[in-house]
Amino acid sequence: MPNMSSSPTQALSSQFVLIMALACGLCAGSAYFNQPLIYSIEKSLNIQTSQAGFAVVVAQIGYMLGLMLLVPLGDFFNKRKLVVSLMCFAGISQILLSTSSSLSSLYVFTLCATFGAISAQVLIPFASSISPPASSAATVGKLMSGLVMGIILSRTFAGFVSTYWSWQGVYLSSGILTLLFAGLMWKKLPDTQRQASLKIGDIYRSLFSLARQNPHLIRRASAGALGFGVLSMVFTSMTFVLGSAPYYFSDFEIGLFGLLGVIGIYSSSWSGKTVGQGKENFVAKLCITLMLLSCIPLYFAQHSLIIYAIGVLMSYFGLTAFHVLNQNLVYRIDGKARSRINAVYMTIYFTGAALGSLGAVYAWQHYQWLGCVVLGSIFSVGILMIDRFDFKHMQNT
């Protein structure tokens, strides 16, 4: 593939965009495979439920570390080599994960697999840069749709393969697919040159400077992190709720229930359009209200599947729309520093996911489902306080 040294003028083929979208979905979705597999992993490795559940936390930590350490370097390294190297690393790690026979190997290879899964976060801005300006936004939109669909379908895929094969088969098949897509990316992506003027130390220092000089960024990221914490609590504890009395769902049935997340596609689109109309405050209030009130139907999760589903839909709609709002707000800080802004925002954002998953495992172990609901309520109140303070500050500046 030729070197892309000048501004692109030819639109990317729909086939190429589809391949990149599938790659994004495969990589991002792999970080969520273990959520419906907790009980299967527990039985297979003969470990405690909390130990198997902690693998979900490890997955979030691996993804967070990748965002913090590697995504900011997207402009420093050759992007084609970086994307393919990360996909190969993730694919090999998943294959090794499928051979895990101990708790330590489960944690180590889970961390490695999700660390490499952030290749999607490098590929999306890369795709934008190799697209003509007129079609850049559409290309990014298609890749983001692929990423979201990958996350939504990942739990169903994992549950299906685990039920009719094994949880190890989930990672073996995904690892092989990831390596095949890495080969496609190497063949299809254009070559680029690293920016010699950039230094790694300067890039990382600029991240801290950006965070220190923009408290608005930290407030939006913190509110988003708590929101993602709520959603992570919901999906991590979903296996505990549906896999035990009174439901006793299989891994596949738990994965099918996770398809409720498809509402995130609609809520993301709705939020983007509404924010574009200048209704940021309205979107924020609606999202926070949904996340706060979702705790009511979630409380009845062990009594009614339909009421539980309503609570999941409310929390998922609220969080995904809130995430789009936050990204729109922080991108306005500095148009020339969006990659670094995104790195800071997403790192803090996924910290919330790790805390939500960890909190869900701890709360379930010590306080059962009530503890999980209380945790979600506390996070939601925190979102409300941070968001209202930030909007008040924006109105005064």
Which key terms come to mind for this protein?
single chain, 397 residues, 0% strand, mainly alpha
List the helices and strands and how they pair.
Elements: H1 14-29, H2 38-45, H3 49-69, H4 79-97, H5 103-116, H6 119-129, H7 133-164, H8 167-188, H9 200-213, H10 215-242, H11 251-257, H12 263-276, H13 280-293, H14 295-299, H15 305-331, H16 338-395
Helix pairs in contact: 1-6, 1-7, 1-8, 2-3, 3-5, 3-16, 4-5, 4-6, 4-8, 6-7, 7-8, 7-11, 9-16, 10-15, 10-16, 12-15, 13-15, 13-16
Head-to-tail CA distance between termini: 49 Å
Radius of gyration (Å): 20 Å
By helix and strand content, what is the structural category?
Answer: mainly alpha
The SSE string, one letter per element, is HHHHHHHHHHHHHHHH
Overall shape: it is globular
How many strands?
Answer: 0
Low-confidence stretches: none
**Proportion of residues in extended strands:** under 5%
Strand count, sense and closure of the main sheet?
Answer: none
Helical proportion, percent range: over 70%
Mean pLDDT: 88
How many individual helices?
16
